[in-house]
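User: For a reading group we're discussing how well predicted structures match intuition. Take DUF6495 family protein. Before you show the prediction, I'll give you the sequence so everyone sees exactly what went in.
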Amino acid sequence: MKYTRLTKEQFEELHQEFINFLATQSITADEWKDIKENKPHVAEQELDVFSDLIWEGVLGKIEYLENISTDQMHLFYLSHSIMKLIAIRVSQPGIDLTTKKGFDWFKQNFRTDAVEIMVASKDYSEDKNLDKFQLIEKGAVITKGELYRWFEEILP
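Assistant: Thanks. Here is the predicted 3D structure of DUF6495 family protein, as structure tokens, for the group to look at:
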């Protein structure tokens, strides 16, 4: 397995897609029931293959990721050829960027010495989707990129 297995909830949401996946392998509902009962290792393999297919599709479409903690923000733009990062660190004690109050403070003070902003870019490795997946594994979430684009417009 290349990524991680989908959760039970994700499988439930993708129930119809999973049925279609099994159908592409000529596995009927009765055959799937038999596989689950009598060949659990084969069922596990099918779940893993389906999970990887879903991840590949999702990862291939991602353009923006954000990883926001109490005192840092990592905003990623995942272009076709490189990963771009805007990294923000807040050194003001008591500020929590994950709260509305902390983020409001940040919006008013992002140009002060209490906020450090760095910009970087990096080439992908041999496996672009795995690079994206590793960022998600480290806590990044998929976004529409509003925050990244806002910073991109105001930074020199």
